[in-house]
Amino acid sequence: MSTTRMQVKLRSTAAAAAMAAALIGLGAGAANAAGWPPLQEGAYLYSGTTGTGTVTVVDLGDFGTCHTLSQAVQSIQIVNGSASVKLYPSADCGGATAWSSGSLTQTDLPSPMLSYRVVSA
Question: Which keywords describe this protein according to UniProt (predicted)?
Answer without folding.
Answer: Signal
